[in-house]
Amino acid sequence: MDESGIGFWGVPLAIFAGAIRVSTPFIFVSLGETITERSGRINLGLEGTLVFGAMSAYAVTVLTSSPWLGVLAAMATGAVFGLVHGWICKFPKVNDIAIGIAMMQFGLGLAFFLGKPFIQPAAPKLPSILLGGWSGIPQVQAALNINVLFFIGASLAVFLFWAFKNTRIGLTLRVVGDSTDAARAMGLSPDTVRLLATAVGSSLAAVGGAYLSLYYPGSWNEGISSGQGLMAVALVIFARWNPIGCFLAALLFGGAGALGPALQSVGVTQGYYLFYAAPYVLTLIILIITSSPTRSLAGAPGVLSLTK
Amino acid sequence: MTKLLSMNRRNFLQTSAAGALAGMMPGLAGSPVSAQTALTIGFIYVGPKDDYGYNQAHAEGAAVIKAMPGITLVEEENVPETVDVQKTMESMINLDGAALLFPTSFGYFDPHMLAMAAKYPDVEFRHCGGLWQEGKHPANTGSYFGYIHQGQYLNGIAAGYASKSKKIGFVAAKPIPQVLQNINAFLLGARSVDPAITCQVIFTGEWSLAVKEAEATNALIDQGSDVITCHVDGPKVVVETAAGRGAFVCGYHANQSALAKDKYLTGAEWAWGNVYTNFIKAAQSGGKLGNFVRGGLKDGFVKMSPLGPAVSAEARKKFEATLAEATAGKLSVFKGPLKDNKGNVVITADKAYAEDAIDLESMAYLVEGVVGSTS
């Protein structure tokens, strides 16, 4: 081993660093989708919201030079997308999954159209916190250079886990998600709750997009998302609608995604296509292990179209 | 009437009116209106045309011919390599009156462009890639492509001087011959400076995967590579990530110096403007377009980005000497004896391939010194 590289230690380090770098969009989108699905609605359009969020965050940052304004802009546009989805879905006989797919295409198309002038300019990036100052190894320092949004996402997961159980809003959300009739009997308006839940969820998904365009990989172009928004929606089911589970699943996906490049970089070069499939193989294995012949999808909100 | 010479109605009226007037008033003969044949040209890109990469290189070429007299340019970007591109071609032919189409992405050729070429025999199609074969494909189609591996060899020379760790890195999309040529040439260029240099390659498996490209760049730098180049459709992410981590960068496809600032050494760029200009001149003069057009540095199909501030005087000297050799057509990057990275002899000592050698187009190996695998 020569002194410039860090050899096979690079693999666990890359998985650790990749888990943190790559997971943040998954965390935000899956937490957002958890809120929406807990209210009994599926928003499949989050891929479009994510990409539109990435575009609007980048555009506003280019125009104002403030990445935090960019994040706020993404949240606002995300909320608008969520409101549109929620509003259309309140009409009878409208299928939320179909609307979600339509909204996804709409979001992508609109983002590509409006984002055209912002592909070339460079925008300032979101700040990160250097936690690796104690280490003399530059690779460790780079791995521990962690973006603020990651910490916000992690705290949000814990907060949501607590809030679903212990707050009135959390309870309201769960009642609406588990039984529309029970919610009506309690005097709640399911449509309003779902509208707001979709708006909040969408707005978080757009923050995931802002992370992509403003931090990692940190540029806006039309290929910025490789399906993170769609995968995160699947993560929610994988995590059984549990916010902490979403956080861990996102880390797992991020880390498994870093495996392929990391192994190639230390000279394990055969079969890299197989390593790239690692996140999906892992998902399948975990789903098989945790599945049960006696019950179906524990934790699923009762009125979700998935479980109908 | 051939589509190539067809004009839209407005131009037809102008030209014929000018012709009629010229008949009456000899003083007007040779006025610019009738000097150039009006020609509508369609460009189709697989991605955004300002991606700092493959598509931008083509769009810059299209912009060159846009300025030529008599040319109307129609462009469409983000066209997938599916039946969508057929619809785009049909709309360019029928609605815009395009008589010459440049579908620039590899996957447009078969079956999409071939189907359209059969349906519209009066329209000319020229595809970027090396797929056209005499006798097998229609005469109104053709291929054009450039040899850019000598550009990557020159990148390698700049990288060889700049690298302190003696490790350089390459982010590659897929292990196809053109990509393998570039990886090998990059290393051979660096080894012409210092034979101890190795090149680590990471394949991402796709032409455009932003997050994976960033991960690959980080992994290369974590393992000590201090000069990075790539062969992906849009090098923006690789260039920005590498420069952000403090590594030097060699560009590819287009000039990315604005993204890496003083970390940018040089870059291998396409010069499609020259290629398209030649096509248009031939079309306007009624000459043959050519079905199989290729060239490299010496033909002006490929150019190098201006050297960055980090390039030493010594590096500049060798770079410029080699560039002159390549421009004169005397450089041979792949010459024996050459082993692949499994120890097999791939080029025997008596052979030296010119940049356009057909044998290079089936390259399926990584040379000794490249750390990586093609599968």
> Which value, in Å, is the CA radius of gyration of chain A?
20 Å
User: And the CATH topology of chain A?
Assistant: ABC transporter involved in vitamin B12 uptake, BtuC
Shape of chain A: globular
Q: Calculate the mean pLDDT score of chain A and round it.
A: 89
**Unreliable residue stretches of chain B:** 1-35
Largest sheet of chain B: 7 strands, mixed
The top level CATH class name of the largest domain in chain B: Alpha Beta
Provide a descriptive summary of the structure in words.
The complex is a heterodimer of chains A (308) and B (375). A two-stranded antiparallel sheet of chain A has the order 1-2. Chain A has 13 helices and 2 strands. Chain A has one domain: ABC transporter involved in vitamin B12 uptake, BtuC (Orthogonal Bundle). Chain A has helices at residues 10-38, 46-64, 67-89, 96-115, 138-143, 148-166, 168-178, 180-185, 190-214, 228-238, 243-265, 272-276, 278-290, and strands at 128-130, 145-147. Chain B folds into 2 domains: 3-146, Response regulator (Rossmann fold, 3-Layer(aba) Sandwich), CATH 3.40.50; 149-269 and 305-371, Response regulator (Rossmann fold, 3-Layer(aba) Sandwich). Chain B contains 12 helices and 15 strands. Chain B has helices at residues 9-24, 32-35, 54-66, 83-94, 109-119, 149-162, 177-191, 210-222, 236-244, 257-260, 272-284, 313-327; strands at 39-44, 71-76, 100-103, 124-128, 141-146, 167-172, 198-203, 227-231, 248-253, 264-270, 292-295, 302-304, 338-339, 345-347, 370-371. Chain B is globular and about 55 Å long. Chains A and B meet through helix 1, helix 5, helix 11 and helix 12 of A and strand 7, helix 8 and helix 9 of B.
